[in-house]
Amino acid sequence: MPHSRFAPRHAWLVLAVLLFANACVKSPDAPPLGADENVYLPSGREYERTPQVVAGVRAGTDFDWVTVTYRDVAEAAQIYADFSGLEVRVPRRIADRAMKFGGPPSGSAPGNKTYGHVIWDLDWQLAQEGVEIVELSRNTIALREVAAGKTPKVPRAATEAEIIRYKNSMSDHEFWTLLEQANRLGKGDCRRTARSLARSLSRLTEEELLGFELRFQSKMMESYRHDLWAVAYLANGGASEDGFTYFRAWLIAQGRERFEAALEHPPAAIEGLSKRSVEQVFECEELLYPATMIYRERTGRPPPVGLVQLPLEPAGAAWKEEDLARLYPDLYARFR
Description:
The strands form three sheets. A four-stranded mixed β-sheet has the order 1-6-8-7. A two-stranded antiparallel ribbon has the order 2-5. A two-stranded antiparallel sheet has the order 3-4. The longest helix is centred in the middle third of the chain and has 17 residues, at 112-128. The relative contact order is 0.13. Helix 5 packs across helix 8 (206-222) and helix 8 packs antiparallel against helix 12 (290-299). By secondary structure, the protein is of the alpha+beta class. The chain contains 14 helices and eight strands.
């Protein structure tokens, strides 16, 4: 997952100012290495990659997963160094601490997505092992034991009463109004749409933010269907598990009318829409993050998990690539 953050108000202006100020101020040097510390530097190691299978078909190399496992804090520290490009320091007394959450975190293609997924997973898993990440300088971090009496910043499960309260804090109509307004202002551009949505969400209360996130996750669950995956696969020239997630986020951003039409008749998801270029895809990953990032910035803690119980498998009948011409002949002719 990406690490872009959304400030509570005037998010992008504030972010731009902070980035400019950060560029103008020399980052402090890391403190001298302690006698009891191990140091882990990026090793250039190549990690195992496992191709995804999408609806029974092996996806292309762009959709490979990175597979990493680690038995203890020392191995986790080396992986953190490899994927972040940072120097990682670990007190020797915790280097051999066994980790229950020994992977595998996963990413997609090399680059920011791989970095984001692996580091994101390690951020949570280290915290659940009682290990926190301390920034020493721009290029150096340390893994430290969580101090006595300090609670690791790990997500907690929402209670049934909280889920009801969050749901009541935002109606379906209010949810769709926010999405449709953001899409209009974004004029079809995913990043602009996400920025517009972030500006609107920054005005909400904490409960309303979680109400929005609950309804967003509910729409993601409703659209987690094999038939819509087939449409995404045809329209985007392939769709991994991640790609289908980004397709559903894009579909939700198109508004209530198109979303509900697609649930009734999946090709309606892209009817009347054309690509501006061969490279364009009907995806919008950026819409997955604004509500949770704003909540975390405002409260200093992650939002509760379990707002919606997501299914393990898509609904409906699975398909194979050779079935698509028969299932959706018009889409097949249009995009193949």
